[in-house]
């Protein structure tokens, strides 16, 4: 591991600014691999840009996220939410999307309205790995991938698998569809730690994905595990 990007832990709202400032201070230290922060945010709030003004401009701040799978589906459909996400292009920040598979049509609506923002779909869109349910997840994912400003984080699969009995082969159809849909230039490894520990250690997840990618060209493996994250989160 050479570099890491912290992605928000959906901290309680009163502590969002304090958490973000703490993480940015940690990222400034030279004795750890923390190179970037994707901060918690509330784009549904009218004071969203005031928050960005307080943290924007820090070289280690790379983007923000709003966990949506715990929220009403209508939250990200409001005009305020959409306009605030669109404003991230002004700040040079990306937006991570964390949703359930059933919410992917809502994601499709949002990405169509934010063409100038780098968007990152977390956890492969949280497919139902345990149930081996590929549709309609496959169709929705391909529709989202048609937008060139969206990248997909290959993560979260073990947390959605059978926690006691999953194997790398259970993950294969989901990993391969993500890569087929987004291409090798728009997929990036994510640990999903510590959530992954519901079903596996981080090491086991890394080994599983490495196994699935071992037959691929070295250049593509490098993109998946390193280069794409460097570009998407601007870690150079």
How would you describe the overall organization of this protein?
- The chain is of the alpha/beta class.
- It has one domain (4-232): Metal-dependent hydrolases (TIM Barrel), CATH 3.20.20.
- The protein contains 9 helices and 7 strands.
- It has helices at residues 16-27, 48-55, 79-86, 88-91, 104-112, 137-145, 168-182, 202-213, 218-232; strands at residues 4-7, 34-40, 61-67, 94-98, 119-121, 150-154, 187-189.
- It has a 7-stranded parallel beta sheet with strand order 1-2-3-4-5-6-7.
- The longest helix is centred in the last third of the chain and has 15 residues, at 168-182.
- 39% of the residues are buried.
Please sum up the structure shown.
The protein is of the alpha/beta class. Helices cover 39% and strands 14% of the residues. It is built from 9 helices and 7 strands; from the N terminus they run βαβαβααβαβαβαβαα.
Task: Chart the SSEs and their pairings.
Elements lengths: L3 E4 L8 H12 L6 E7 L7 H8 L5 E7 L11 H8 L1 H4 L2 E5 L5 H9 L6 E3 L15 H9 L4 E5 L13 H15 L4 E3 L12 H12 L4 H15 L4
Parallel strand pairs: 1-2, 2-3, 3-4, 4-5, 5-6, 6-7
């Amino acid at each position: 591991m050479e570099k890491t990007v912290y992605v928000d832990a959906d901290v309680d709202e009163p502590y969002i600014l304090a958490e973000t400032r703490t993480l940015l201070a940690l990222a400034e230290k030279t004795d750890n691999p923390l190179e970037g922060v994707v901060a918690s945010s509330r784009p549904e709030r009218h004071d969203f840009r005031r928050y960005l003004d307080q943290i924007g401009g820090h070289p280690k701040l790379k983007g923000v996220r709003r966990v949506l799978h715990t929220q009403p589906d209508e939250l990200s459909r409001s005009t305020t939410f959409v306009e605030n996400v669109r404003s991230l292009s002004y700040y040079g920040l990306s937006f991570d999307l964390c949703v359930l598979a059933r919410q992917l049509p809502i994601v499709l609506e949002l990405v169509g309205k934010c063409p100038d923002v780098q968007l990152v779909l977390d956890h492969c869109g949280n497919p139902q790995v345990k149930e081996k349910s590929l549709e309609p997840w496959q169709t929705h994912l391909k529709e989202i991938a048609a937008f060139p400003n969206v990248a997909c984080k290959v993560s979260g699969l073990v947390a959605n698998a059978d926690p006691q009995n999953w194997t790398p082969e259970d993950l294969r159809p989901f990993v391969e569809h993500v890569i087929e849909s987004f291409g090798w230039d728009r997929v990036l490894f994510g640990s999903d730690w510590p959530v992954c520990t519901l079903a596996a250690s981080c090491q086991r997840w890394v080994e599983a994905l490495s196994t699935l990618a071992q037959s691929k060209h070295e250049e593509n493996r490098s993109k998946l595990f390193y280069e794409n994250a460097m570009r998407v989160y601007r870690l150079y």
